[in-house]
Design a protein that fits this description.
The protein has 213 residues and is α+β, with helices and mostly antiparallel strands. It has two domains: 92 residues, Ribosomal Protein L25, Chain P, CATH 2.40.240.10; 78 residues, Ribosomal protein L25, C-terminal domain (RNA Polymerase Alpha Subunit, Chain A, domain 2). The strands form three sheets. A six-stranded mixed β-barrel has the order 1-3-2-6-5-4. It has a four-stranded mixed sheet with strand order 10-7-9-12, with no helix packed on it. The chain has a three-stranded antiparallel sheet with strand order 8-13-11, with no helix packed on it.
């Protein structure tokens, strides 16, 4: 998984007054959990642009004054309810031998024949929560929908991998194509439908002839 570098400064004071002063200066107070003790630091709000305002998932290399580098993943973020400014970010420290939980985005590949026939594509799960060692974290789940017909779906079961654990039931639907009013289900089914209609018409005519006699 790709990593983003965030340069920050370790915080000595974590009180409300110090936190307010940081925000007024354009800094974001942050905490890294998972180590021997919580690590408090701050970084410029612009430093989080490529981490927060993207559909992609990334790990983070936090570079602190003095040369210390901490590997982590973002766990939680708080925004101001009016201005949408970043108020606080929580991180979880990464260790090579410790699994971590993370949401991984899903990308759809190809064009669904069911959609071409008028079906409606429903993208149920745009992200999937997984648990894996840091070096086994995938950048994306690529889901091929090029054979997805009307009435079919792709579930978590098809995405299982020995490198990680998906934290959703195997039957969880990721993407599906539903029937729309004007949808053409399949050519062979359509032909059967026409033959059935012709047979019903013939039976109706025969019944009318009997009634007239």
């Amino acid at each position: 998984m790709k990593s983003i570098t965030i340069k920050g400064s370790e915080r000595e004071s974590v009180g409300k007054k110090a936190t307010k002063a940081l925000r007024n200066a354009g800094e974001v107070p942050c905490v890294v959990y998972g180590g021997d003790k919580p690590l408090h630091f701050s970084a410029p709000e612009l430093a989080f642009k490529d981490l927060v305002y993207t559909p992609n998932a990334h790990t983070v290399a936090i570079e602190l004054d003095g040369g210390e580098v901490v590997r982590a993943v973002m766990q939680d973020i708080q925004f101001h309810p009016v201005t949408d400014r970043i108020l606080h970010v929580d991180f979880y420290q990464l260790f090579d031998d410790k699994p971590v939980t993370m949401n991984i985005p899903v990308r759809l590949q190809g064009n669904s024949p069911g959609v071409r026939n008028g079906g409606r594509l429903l993208f149920r799960k745009r992200k999937l929560a997984i648990k894996a060692l840091p070096d086994k974290l995938p950048d994306f789940f690529d889901v091929d929908i090029s054979k997805l017909k009307i009435g079919q779906n792709i579930s978590v079961e098809t995405l299982l991998n020995d490198d990680f654990t998906i934290l959703h039931p195997e039957t969880t639907v990721v993407v599906q194509v539903m029937t729309a009013r004007a949808a053409v289900v399949e050519d062979d089914e359509e032909e059967e439908g026409e033959e059935g209609a012709a047979a019903e018409g013939a039976e109706g005519e025969a019944a009318e002839g009997t009634a007239q006699e």
